[in-house]
Amino acid sequence: MGARKRLRAEKIKEDNKSIAFAKLNDSPIAPRKMRLVADLVRGVEVNKALNILQYNSKNASKSLGTLLRSAIANWEQKNEGKNIEEENLVVRSIEVGGGAMLKRIQAAPQGRAHRVRKRSNHVTITIDGTK
Predict the structure, then answer these.
(1) How far apart are CA 27 and CA 11, in angstroms?
(2) Are 51 and 105 in contact (CB under 8 A)?
(3) pLDDT tens by residue, 27-76
(4) Domain 16-130 CATH superfamily
(5) Where are the beta strands (DSSP E) in the chain?
(6) 36 vs 50, 55, 60, 64, 127, CA distance in Å?
(7) 92 three-class SS
(8) Burial class (CB within 10 angstroms; exposed 0-12, middle 13-18, buried 19+) of 129
(9) What angle do CA 55, 60, 63 make, to 5 degrees?
(10) What per-residue confidence (pLDDT) applies to 85?
């Protein structure tokens, strides 16, 4: 590996030390409903985001709250010497993508059938600790 490439790789590693993420796959909530809650906490400080999720009445907020706590725990494990109160942790990004879809049949009038699509989603949350 060349000197410039090595220096660039070391810089990227140093930048990634302040970043932590967590993933939730196959959550049984529709992606559209999950995005409504995810938009509330995107770009917000972590403690404020936890409060928003705790007092939100939507069902998706419970899953996102658990996922955010997991990302915080990942950040703490990655940065053992740093204190979470001193750092300014911010929810950098939340990505909600569509997951697998269960296809079911619902009875319809005159012997017909309608297809019911039960959607799921995948969520990735990234937090960044900068002073």
Answers:
(1) 35
(2) no
(3) 999 999 999 999 999 999 999 999 999 999 999 999 999 999 999 999 99
(4) Ribosomal protein L22/L17 (3.90.470.10)
(5) 19-27, 88-107, 113-130
(6) 16, 15, 9, 11, 19
(7) strand
(8) buried
(9) 90
(10) 79
pLDDT by residue (tens digit) across 5-20? 999 999 988 888 889 9
Name the DSSP class of 88.
Answer: E
- Which residue's entry shows tokens 């928003």? 52
91 — phi, psi (to 5°)?
-75, 100
3-state helix, strand, coil in the chain (%, to 5): 45, 35, 20
pLDDT at 84: 79
- Taking the C-alpha atoms of residue 102 and residue 71, their distance in angstroms, rounded to an integer, is 28
Residue 86 DSSP SS3: coil
C-alpha span between 51 and 55 (Å, rounded): 6
